[in-house]
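User: Let's play a game. I give you a shape written as tokens, and you guess the letters that built it. Ready? Here's round one.
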């Protein structure tokens, strides 16, 4: 239960950070065209998606050691945020790519500021994709083993690490039950993210017509 509570806290915090940063990255890539450093920025955002988890985990470990940050709860949280924000970016960027900009223009023509337009028009319309990105980031953090094992420390043993350490000593009913519950939670999260993503795409299609 202690490992499960650590896993839930890391998942919620990292998914929240990844959702905010991923949404900002998607807005920058979709709305601001060819800005200086766009190629480098795009590569840095999507690099964790294509790099092997072992390389990503080792790179983050070397980074934390270089800056003198002790391994523990926050290093795992930052590592999961780094890995999952690219998935949020992909989901939100797909929604923004089909977004009808005339709705924003109409709001600004009626006197709304760009900030108010974003919170009153843009954000509600892309909310399903943001929620889908959050669920996807949370599920990816929930069942991660490789990256967490590189960056964990005292008091930051996640449930996958705990299960793996017990499996090495032999199978037990507790491990089987915990694994089944974890698989069920991840399956529900991925299914929810997929449904919300499809809903966002359908909604964007209706708005554009």
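Assistant: Ready! My guess for every position:
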């Amino acid at each position: 239960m202690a490992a499960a509570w650590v896993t839930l806290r890391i998942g919620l915090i990292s998914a929240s950070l990844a959702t905010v940063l991923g949404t900002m990255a998607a807005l920058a890539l979709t709305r601001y065209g060819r800005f200086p450093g766009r190629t480098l920025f795009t590569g840095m955002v999507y690099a964790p998606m294509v790099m092997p988890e072992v390389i990503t985990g080792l790179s983050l470990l070397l980074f934390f050691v270089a800056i003198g940050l002790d391994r523990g709860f926050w290093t795992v949280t930052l590592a999961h945020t780094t890995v999952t924000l690219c998935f949020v970016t992909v989901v939100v960027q797909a929604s923004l790519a089909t977004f009808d900009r005339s709705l924003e223009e109409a709001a600004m023509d009626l006197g709304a500021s760009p900030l108010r337009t974003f919170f009153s028009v843009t954000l509600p319309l892309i909310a399903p994709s943001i929620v889908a990105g959050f669920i996807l980031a949370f599920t990816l953090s929930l069942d991660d083993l490789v990256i967490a094992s590189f960056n964990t420390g005292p008091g930051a043993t996640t449930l996958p690490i705990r299960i793996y350490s017990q499996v090495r000593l032999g199978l037990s009913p507790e491990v089987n039950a915990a694994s089944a519950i974890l698989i069920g939670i991840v399956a529900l999260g991925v299914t929810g993210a997929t449904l919300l993503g499809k809903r966002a795409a359908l909604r964007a299609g209706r708005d554009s017509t």
